[in-house]
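Please, structure for the following, as tokens.
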Amino acid sequence: MKRYLLKLDSVEEVNAKKVAEVVANVSSVSGTKSNEPAVPANLVEESPESPAEKTDDVELSDADEVNTPTTSSKKSKNRTQMFRQGWLGDFAFLKEIDKKPFCSYCNMKLTNNKAHIERHEKSKNHQQMFKSLKQQPKINIVNLEPTKKNEKVKTSELKIIMFILQYNLAMSLIEPLIALIKSIDGETIKDIQLGRTKLKETITSSLLKEANRDIVDVLKKQKFSVIIDETTDVSSSKCLCVVVRYFDFSYGKVRDRFLSLIELFEFDAKSIFNVIFKCFNDLSIPFKNCVGFASDNAAVMVGKKSGVRSLFLKQNPNMFTLGCMCHSIHLCSSAAAKKIPQNIEVLLRNIYVYFSHSTKKQIEFKEFQEYFNVEKHKILKTSFTRWLALEQVVARTLEQWPAILHYFLENSFESSDSNLDLVHKIQEELNDTTKLYLLFLAYVLQLTKQLNLEFQSQSVRIHKFLPYIKTFYKTILQNFVKSEFLRDEFLSDPNFNDDCLKDIDLVYVGAKAELFIKTKKLEINQVKEFKGVCREYYKTLCSQISQRIDFDNEILKSIQGIDPLNLAESSTAIISCIPDLIDKNEIENLDMEWRTLLNQTMISNSLEIEEFWSKIFFLKNALNETLFPLTKHFVSSLLSLPHSSAAAERVFSQLFLIKDKKRNRLEVNTLNAIMSCKELLNGVDCSKWNPSKSLLKSYKK
């Protein structure tokens, strides 16, 4: 019986003539008769002269031998075995490639036959290759060439970086910019079409209308206060900023929101009031809902006879009005500062001027800072317009005092210094008396700054207005006035005669200044002169406070009754001061709600005022109705009353970031639209912001 080899090449790839010759040769060798059927073309007799076929890998088993039929005239059929997945588990070296077995050790194809695979596993060549691979350590080859995807990502990131550099944008913008890009669908980006003209048109039309609608809908339904202030931008345009303050029930807190920026062409009180009134009418905001007014203390704003405030009161006589407390504190401090020797402020200014324009001097000064182990901070510049900013300058000078003292002492002997006269002048002023005044200013300005920061807060402070002022006022008074005179009637009309004043030795000037006096053992006359100046500072400061603050203001007194820790027993005291906050027919029902509220134990009185009342507003009864509806309306109106005009100053800070020297041609109308549109974000990052359906409908693609 002849043994045959399964030909691996396909019939289509083998020349028909060569196949016939192979079959004829097989027939002659095996003695096959001419009437016997020819061997199929895909079966070739094993030939010892064929080195390519004579291997252990291509022999067939006995079960797979192909015999030449002798009794049947029918053609034998080919039986091709398919690859079985089970073989992969039986042979560790086996892989499947094109539905055929493949030896990963020998890197060669095998036949779809398990017996053939087993013989290959036992073959000499396979065993040698297996031993060789077993002894060879595995080398992890890392593809150092970046993939196309990585190249695209890198290219995109570099383009964004170059965008930041090209347009001189702040590096802090990169994170929100990337977040915004990721929030936009990849397919959508290709369809975006935005140009300068369309951008401006969208801001001044669709977005502005949506922003106005958003805030006007609120102001039509509830009470609010208006805060105004004037400013001049970089193009010398005089503008009036209008901010509204109201309780936002969706956020559960009071909010200050920008309403409008109006260009002024006339600057008298009547013109200012008219543009505000026109703004309200254009936006269809009912003026009767405005229950509070705040501005700076300029005469055109708060003048009793012809100021803007007086014109507001003509429209609503029961409106609560207030000059900016932060502005008042600044004016009080500026007046008191005139009692301090002028050479103190001149010294601070000269020290800054000496270092400000010389890198060499700053480097030399750092050596002294290192030697005396003080922080490497820069010398600060004094402000001519904001005297409270002097507190930071004084604190920095005291921090750097040892380094400053020894630096100018050494440089006073340097004849080559072009500013030698200035050095001598500074060096002469760096003495114990100067340091004593600086220690006093650091103490008193720190107290004033803390009070100022309280009234700059966006949170509700109207109920703490009088308590904060009284605490500060009494703290200053007790430094130089005898304790038996510190009564309420003295606060309203102080009379600083010799009988009520402490002895000059007992005047308190701050802990550090008191310790410095005892440590340095200064002369008695020197100390008396110093404390006498400090007492004059105190007297001027307190006199200014008593003139500017009405400690007997009934509205400010009654509003303290909304403090959760000190709730009034009845709402009538507040209603009598601001009657427009509640309908006359509902006064009795409101007071019943209020007295019921006093006995509630569901909400803790220790919460902050906004959080406390927010929880009260949303209490429900068994019918799922608001438990205190009248109180909700009444107190939310009180919480909206302003305590300063700092909100308008914050708007100006944003305004100057938008319209700077590079964008000085922006018109006021465009600025107004930009500021209004920013209100739509409501504090949410633009990558997470979603436009309303009404905005999407009005926006034209």
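Confidence is low (pLDDT under 50) at residues 1-16, 26-76. The chain is about 50% helix and 10% strand.
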